[in-house]
Write a structure and sequence with these properties.
This protein is mainly α and 318 residues long. It is built from twelve helices and no strands. Helix content is 75%, strand content 0%.
Length: 318
């Protein structure tokens, strides 16, 4: 109970800090959606002032922040400058796709990096170790936007295996067919996320495994005549889990941030694409709403990682 209260207090403090920084950064940004000519070249300054009054932008900065915080406590992020729609509904309509993409990518990155990293360390300086290290280096140095273009050219244009963009086919589908159609459209963007995320994780897992293989307790277990499966199950994996889970929790912001680029390239109607389009049109209510939700998801992800670590090792916080 004490740990839960401590984590909740940490989340509230961090959200308040992030809200202040985000609010000040948005208002310090050059230009504005309501700048002269931003809406209509023929719009008069008087009309712009009336619009600012409608959105509450004519108030002092402190009053604007207090009103905004009071609204987001009730998940009310205001009204979009561009569409005139409720920001909360705009975001929550798109967030499931982004969450599913990141969740699937995170699971595959965890499983593949764990397998390849351990295999690379167990076959140190062998051919398989060399191949895995080269794959990890290519992944580590590969920009996601460039890999996305390569995937589109090769798998979509040349081989015609997957769609170039979008989330649904032209012909509408229902039920299981609709889910399979969405999965078919998401193969390439999720594939890019997995490959780009593998590089650093493989290197990290390999390094940790090599340290374990050099440890005294591993040599002691080896001297007892245990098989490689037993060594892997009882000595290598239990000691790998805590640092890997911690790193996965810290990698959540990067994965969610990468969705902005990939969803824009693949024309996926997710939260990342909405953020990109809102940034171009200076739709500040949507930008601030997405920033706060992303911060909340990141903090919750870190808490989940901490709880998993506590489950693996109940003495970690004692």
């Amino acid at each position: 109970m004490k740990l839960i209260l401590k984590q909740i207090s940490y989340v509230i403090f961090m959200l308040m800090l992030i809200s202040i920084i985000s609010f000040l950064a948005i208002h310090a940004a050059p230009n504005s959606f309501f700048a002269a000519g931003g809406l209509n070249p023929n719009m008069t300054p008087e009309a712009i002032e009336k619009l600012k009054a409608v959105y509450g932008l004519d108030k002092p900065l402190l009053d604007q922040y207090i009103d905004w915080v009071q609204n987001i406590v009730h998940l009310n992020f205001g009204i979009s400058f561009v569409s005139g729609q409720d920001v909360s509904s705009e975001i929550f309509k798109r967030i499931p796709v982004t969450l599913w993409m990141n969740f699937i990518a995170l699971v595959f990155v965890f499983l593949l990096s764990l397998y390849l990293g351990v295999k690379s360390a167990l076959h140190y300086e062998m051919k398989s170790d060399y191949i895995i290290r080269q794959i990890s280096l290519v992944s580590f140095s590969m920009p996601s936007f460039y890999l996305a273009l390569l995937f589109i050219i090769f798998f979509s244009l040349k081989l015609d295996w997957f769609p170039i963009a979008g989330l649904h086919s032209i012909e509408p589908k229902e039920g299981l067919a609709n889910i399979l159609d969405m999965a078919w459209h998401l193969v390439l963007p999720i594939g890019v996320m997995i490959f780009v995320g593998l590089g650093s994780m493989i290197i990290y897992v390999r390094s940790l495994t090599l340290e374990i293989l050099k440890s005294d307790y591993y040599f002691f277990a080896l001297s007892r005549g245990l098989t490689q499966k037993q060594l892997l199950r009882f000595y290598i994996l239990p000691n790998l889990m805590p640092p890997i889970i911690t790193l996965l929790g810290l990698s959540l912001p990067g994965l969610i941030g990468g969705s902005v680029i990939l969803e824009s390239i693949f024309s996926i109607e997710g939260m990342g694409q909405l953020f990109y389009m809102s940034a171009l049109s200076r739709d500040y209510p949507i930008i601030m709403g997405i920033l706060m939700i992303t911060a909340l998801l990141t903090l919750v992800g870190n808490i989940i990682a901490d709880l998993i670590l506590l489950k693996l090792n109940p003495y970690i916080n004692r």
